[in-house]
Design a protein that fits this description.
Elements lengths: L3 E10 L2 E10 L1 H40 L6 H31 L8 E4 H8 L1 H6 L3 E5 L5 E4 L1 H18 L5 E9 L2 E8 L6 H4 L10 H4 L8 H11 L4 E5 L5 E8 L2 H10 L1
Helix pairs in contact: 1-2, 5-8
C-alpha cells in the first residue's frame, strides 16, 4: 500500500480553467508518524501506573505531615510542591494518551445527563481554595446537558487553568452558561493581556504555542487541541474571542440530544 498526498490546482486561462494535479508519495512520512504515535501510546500507558502510585503515596505523606503537631514549614512546602508537580505530570501523560486516541479515531464518549453548574463547581474548586482567583458563575444553576462528563470536565479544567496561567493579573474568571437554540454555550473569560489575531488562528492546532508564552510557561501545546477535538466529537464547536490588551473569551457549545429532551420531558 502506498500513501499519497493529492494536491489539485486550478488556473484561469483565457476564460477557461487549466488544472494541475500533483501526487506525492508520503508512505515513509506516514509510517514514521504511525511509529511515533505507537511509541507515545505505549510510553504513556506504561507511565500511568507509576504516576498514579506516586500521587497516592505523596497524598498520604502530605496528610501525615499535616497531622504532625508542629510540622516544619519547609517540609510542608516541599511535600506540597512534589504533589503539584506529580499532578502536572499526570495531566501531561493524559494529554499524550488523548492525542493518540484522537489521531486513531478511538476517543470514545460515555454520555450521561448531568448538572453543568455542579460539574464546573467541582472541577474549579481548587481555584477558589487558593484565594488568588475568584470564579464568577453566570447562568442557570439547574442547567443540565448531555455529554461525557469526564471529558467536558477536562475541557473546563484546561480553559480555567489557561486563564490562570496566561492571565495571572486577572483575578476574576467569569464562566458563563447560556441556552441557545438547540445547544448550550459555555464560555470562560479573563481580563488578561488578550491574544493577538495572528495567534488566534492557530490556537487549536496540535503542539502550537504562541511566541508570547513560550518563554514564560511550560507545556506541550496540546490542551486546546484536545479540548476542541472533544467538543467536535460531541458535535459542538469551540472558538475564541479576544482583543489584544483586553482579555480573552474561550467558548464551546454542546448540542442538545433527542434522547436527552425526551428524558427531561418525562422528568418534568
Amino acid at each position: 500500500m502506498i500513501w499519497c498526498q493529492v494536491t489539485s490546482i486550478l488556473i484561469p486561462e483565457k476564460g477557461d480553467a487549466l488544472g494541475y494535479t500533483i501526487l506525492e508519495d508520503v508512505t515513509e512520512q506516514h509510517n514514521l508518524r504511525e511509529q511515533r504515535e505507537q511509541f507515545i501510546s505505549i510510553a504513556s500507558h506504561e507511565l500511568k501506573t507509576p504516576i498514579t502510585s506516586l500521587k497516592i503515596t505523596t497524598q498520604l505523606i502530605n496528610r501525615m505531615i499535616r497531622n504532625l503537631p508542629e510540622p516544619p514549614n519547609e517540609m510542608v512546602k516541599l511535600s506540597a510542591n512534589v504533589e503539584r508537580h506529580i499532578t502536572k505530570l499526570a495531566y501531561l501523560v493524559e494529554d499524550l494518551l488523548n492525542t493518540t486516541k484522537i489521531e486513531r479515531g478511538q476517543l470514545a464518549l460515555n454520555k450521561t445527563i448531568f448538572n453543568i453548574f455542579e460539574m464546573i463547581d467541582g472541577c474549579c474548586s481548587h481555584v477558589n481554595l487558593t484565594g488568588n482567583f475568584n470564579i464568577v458563575y453566570i447562568g442557570d444553576h439547574m442547567q443540565k446537558v448531555v455529554a461525557d462528563q469526564h471529558k467536558i470536565d477536562q475541557v473546563m479544567v484546561n480553559l480555567v487553568n489557561n486563564a490562570i496561567k496566561y492571565a495571572p493579573e486577572s483575578k476574576d474568571i467569569v464562566i458563563k452558561v447560556e441556552r441557545l437554540h438547540g445547544s448550550t454555550k459555555v464560555s470562560v473569560t479573563d481580563r488578561g493581556k488578550g491574544i493577538d489575531s495572528e495567534s488566534q488562528v492557530h490556537l487549536f492546532d496540535r503542539f502550537y504555542r504562541a511566541d508570547s508564552v513560550k518563554s514564560t510557561s511550560s507545556g506541550l501545546g496540546l490542551g486546546l487541541y484536545i479540548s476542541s477535538e472533544i467538543v467536535k466529537r460531541h458535535g459542538g464547536e469551540m472558538g475564541v474571542e479576544s482583543t489584544f490588551g483586553e482579555g480573552a473569551t474561550f467558548w464551546f457549545t454542546l448540542p442538545d440530544d433527542e434522547n436527552f429532551s425526551i428524558q427531561m420531558d418525562n422528568n418534568n
